[in-house]
Amino acid sequence: MPTLDWIGKKAVINHHREVPYHLLRCDAKLSVGDPGSGNLLVEGDNLLALKALLPYYAGQVKCIYIDPPYNTGNEKWVYNDAVNSPEIRRWLGKVVGQEAEDLSRHDKWLSMMYPRLAILKELLHPDEGIIFVSIDDNEFATLKLLMDEMFGQRNFFAQIVVEANRRGQTYKQISKNHEYILCYARSDKTVLREIETNGENLDKRDEWGAYSPRELRNRNPKFNRRNRPNLFYPICIDPHHGDSEGLHCLLPERRESAIETLPLNSKGDESCWRWGKPKLLEAIGRGLQVVYASKTRNGEWRIFEKYRKETVKPKSLWSETQFISEQGTSLLRQMGMGELFQFPKPIALIQRIVAIATNPCDLVLDSFAGSGTAGHAVLAQNKADSGNRRFILVEMEPDICRNVTAQRLSRAIEGYETNGKPIEGLGGGFRYCTLAEPLFDEGGTIRPEVTFADLAAHVFFTETGEPIPKRTNGRKPLLGVCNGTAYYLLFNGILGDKRPDGGNVLTGKTLAQLPAHDGPKVVYGEGCRMGKTRLKRERITFKQVPYEIKTA
Fold it and tell me: Which residues is 176 bridged to in the sheet?
């Protein structure tokens, strides 16, 4: 498989593992609506924010949509080639090293994207997760190779082409009017949902309702009698019994007056049917409601299914008016925020992604939140299908996060007025979070403001790679059980012991107070006064706080 290389790649491949874990702090004053909705808006560098989210959400996100900078060279963005801010120079110098001075804007873009995609992959559900990334020609080729390397070519779903601008960029030799969305699954078990059409895909009607005729012959030229023998057989037609539309019944077996037809194309070459014989016989039993034969103008018989599903598979070309970029700008203007953010994505575009990639109770993540279209789209889709999806948005620019993203979500939730007309709110809410200090100081000591719940989530995740099963209330030392092993944390006198060690030391008395578990146990504490023989007998692995807690 072709691989992608760039200056600085070696330095960033494992950078996401070296990023320290930060705490997330919720700001009640900036939060909106129902605090129990499960929605989060996080202000802060998205790499640090994603790492902070891992202990709670690893493997739980079903759908990720991101709209990273396209790296056109004109963006006013901190990682842009034209920006020489001390922040970016310091970051590149620290992570990439002396090579940083030689980086092109493409090297910088890839160095920025790699660690973020690495953590996003860890957040995706291992069997059902799927990621969508908007991009244009500037970085499409490099992003495709990067995603192939990270997610595997076999998990590439589609390169969706979106008609973003009907008029096109007329100042170029070829007037470009499209963008791309690259779509990758986390595994080959991922399945997309079909698109609801409200019956618009069904153009005919009979006594049983609307339908669309679909030829039963498989039109793929690769399939025929040799490689699909169970799908090559004669179908019997009753030529004497048809309805007013010229639709004729099929027969379950051959009769003297029956006509037999085989799956042949217009040139007489063999193909095959889409259904096996058992399924066909079941359909024949339901008569013209399901399947029929009709004659073409040249006298040939064809077999059709009456397709009645009001859904269709998503196509790779999205050219509907609702997906044009101007629609996003127009909506933001209607919400009274048109001058605050340029080029927001259309809500219909992200809502389409949410609709085909999630079930009604799934979690959606956007770590390049911008104006908050993804969160708005989740709320809109919940309203459309009575769902209970949750979103996590991350926006690194404080001014945008507070004055655009949060304000847009607030108006979408609570309602707003446009041209004197009230727009009903979609309901819900979100918690506004900021990045606090790392769990550990530079000397590796746990910061005094770290709570039991904070450290518990961190310990369980770094031990198991799984988010903590239930956010602890700080009253019990048992964090959870994973693959038969129980994990305990003795921290801040969790057992309420009045001794000087506060119950943070593993002793025989402390062990007796731990919730029982018949299996291996990992216990974190400040010290241990039990001998190796006793620990082995009790099947305990002791790890000392803070020295044996992973800091990154």
Answer: 169
The structural domains of the chain, ordered by start, are: 9-135+326-436 (3.40.50), 204-309 (no CATH), 439-544 (no CATH)
Whether omega for the bond prior to residue 546 falls within 30 degrees of 0, making it cis, is: yes
Taking Cα atoms as reference points, which of 365, 550, 468, 477 lies closest to residue 56?
Answer: 468
Dist CA 412 CA 391 (whole Å)? 14
In contact, 488 and 521? CB cutoff 8 Å: yes
Q: Residue type for 162, please?
A: V
The β-bridge partners of 417 are 422
Task: Quote the CA–CA distance of 243 and 393 in Å, as a whole number.
Answer: 57
Angle at 250 between CA 246 and CA 255, to 5 degrees: 115
361-375 tens-digit pLDDT = 999 999 999 999 999
DSSP symbols for 41-73: EEES-HHHHHHHHHHHHTTTBSEEEE------S
Cα atoms in the Cβ-side hemisphere of radius 13 Å centred on 193:
17
- Given pLDDT bands bounded at 50, 70 and 90, which one contains residue 85? very low
- Here the tokens at position 223 are 């399939």
Q: What is the pTM of this model?
A: 0.85
